[in-house]
Each structure stands twice: as structure tokens, then as C-alpha cells.
Amino acid sequence: MAQQRIAVVTGASSGFGKLTVEALAADGWRVFGTMRNVATANAAPAAALRAAGAEVVELDVLSDASVDAAATTILAAGTPDVLVNNAGNAFFGLVEAFTPDAVERQYATNVVGPLRVNRAFLPAMRERKSGLIVYVSSVVGRFTLPFGGVYASSKWALEALAEVSSYELAPFGVDVAIVEPGAFPTEIGAKVTIADDDARTASYGDVAATLSGAVNGALAAVAQTRDSADVANAIVRLANAPAGTRPLRTTVPADPATDAINAAVGPIQTGIISAFGLGDLLPKAVAR
Predict the structure, then answer these.
(1) Vertex 149: Cα angle to 188 and 59 (nearest 5)
(2) Which of 42, 184, 259, 260 counts the highest number of beta carbons within 10 A?
(3) Would you state the pLDDT for residue 279?
(4) Collapsing DSSP states into helix, strand and coil, what is residue 33?
């Protein structure tokens, strides 16, 4: 009898993370959904995931001790076949109106958090020479919009780390996949952190109001036409795809603008890697 495959999903208390845990569990995976405050603020979503057949583990991506403790618990069950870096948050506002401390908080969750989680699980995955790391990014990890510079820049940074990891992990048989959702009606919209320097925002006058209204209105209108489960289902398809066949980037839904960027940049990036004499690190049979 084949051993049950193991998946780990961060940020599983809501949104894409919760849906991904549920979809993987329904597909027969042994899933560890991780989140903060399992016994307190997130007791209800933790109970819902357990009812769906998942195991819930306390994990705060901002804490070395928390991540290490969670990894110890999960690795005792076996090496993950799939690790989904989903935990994240969104900071929106004028770039100048964010204090450095606020920008550091955005990067701490969206960039350093996945790096911290990877460091806890990758040694075992490299030793076994198989596995998949999924990064939940965004279409704004490839382009930018006014009022979204801080959030988008964190996703650009995440994508850089992910793509470089795809080269560095290829010799160990570990795949990397970046999922780039567009706007969806998830809970993240209600949890947005706005720029924290009110005086700087006010100094932009009508420009700030115009940008905020236009961008937020457009995103909200698009989001309401979509089903967030599409992102979870895309992750399940990547998890089930044969090793070495997974595309580096997947937009959800297919997005003409982002897909065009990816199609144009991919061959250029491949050429640069090859020009440095590192072509052997390029994952085989994968659309870049």
C-alpha cells in the first residue's frame, strides 16, 4: 500500500490557505494546516480543518522558535512531499506614507517568513531528493499598481527568492512552483494594513483619494466575479503533477498581462543563467 503523501500549508486559518488544506485533504493527502493562535483566536478555523480531516499545528512565520517547534512535530510524521508557503498579509497606501518600520513588517511576513519556513523543511526534502515548494505570490509580483508598491515589492522579492531556489534545488530533485492569483474575495481584503503616516497621506490631497478609490474599486469589482477555490485547486494540480513537469509560474485565473510578462521574461532569464555557465541548474522540461 502506498504511503500517504504529506503536505504542509502555512496561513491555513482563512483564505487560500484554508481552502488549500481542505482541497488537499479531500484529495487524500495527509495535510498539516499551520496557523497562529490555534487554541485562542483561531480555535474555530482550527476545529473546521480538523473536521475536514487535516491536522492543525501552531506556527508563526515570524518566529524561529515557533517554526522550529512546528517542523519538529511535522517531520516526526515524515518528510513533506509538498510545502505551501501561503501565509501573508497586505499593506496598501502611498509608498512615501509608509514608515520604514511598517515596510519591515510587510517584508517580515511575506518575504522572511517563507524563507524561515523553508529552512526548517528543506534539509529533509533535499536529503530525500524529492518534493515541491509552492509559493503563493500574486499577479502584482510581476507588475505594479499605484497604492500597492509596498505589497507588490514584497511579492517581487518573494518571486526572486523562489526563482533562484528553483535553480539551486533542481539538483536535489525538489521542484519550485509560484502561484500568482489575481484579485479574489478572500478575507485578506478585510485585513489590509494601510499606510501608517497619516500626515504624509494627507499631504497628497485629492491624489491619494483618487488613487485609493480607483485601485480599490477596480480590485473589488474583479474579485467578486471569482471563486477563491480556483487557487486551491490549482495548487492541488501542481501537487499531483509529476516531478519535473511543473511550470515555474501559474496565474489564477489565466491572466493575459501577467502571462505575457512571464512568457517574455522566461527565455531571457534562461539565457542569462546559461550565459553564466549554469545551464545545468535549469529544471528540465519546465516552461520558464
Answers:
(1) 40
(2) 184
(3) 92
(4) strand
Averages of pLDDT over each 10 residues, the chain, 288 residues: 90 97 98 98 98 98 98 98 98 97 98 98 98 98 95 98 97 98 84 94 93 84 92 98 97 96 96 94 62
Looking at residue 285, what is its pLDDT?
46
* Cα-based angle 233, 113, 34 (whole degrees, multiple of 5): 50
Grid cell for residue 133 = 515548494
Q: What pLDDT is attached to residue 284? A: 66
Pick left, alpha or beta for residue 85 (phi over 0 → left; psi -120 to 50 → alpha; otherwise beta): beta
C-alpha to C-alpha distance for 185 and 224, rounded to whole angstroms: 6
Taken in order 271, 274, 278, 282, is the CA torsion positive or negative? positive
Which three cell numbers, joined as nine digits, stand for 86?
Answer: 501561503
DSSP annotation of 112: I
Rounded distance, CA 9 to CA 81, Å?
11
Q: How far is CA 242 from CA 58, 131, 231, in A?
A: 30, 10, 19
Topology given in CATH for the domain delimited by 6-89+107-188+228-281: Rossmann fold (3.40.50)
Rounded distance between C-alpha atoms, residue 147 and residue 209, angstroms = 10
Does the annotation mark 204 as catalytic? Answer: no
Query: Helix, strand or coil for residue 65?
Result: helix
List 107, 135, 151, 167, catalytic entry = 151
Could you tell me which of 109, 62, 57 has the C-alpha nearest to residue 86?
A: 109
**The residue type at 222:** V
Terminal CA-CA length for the chain: 35
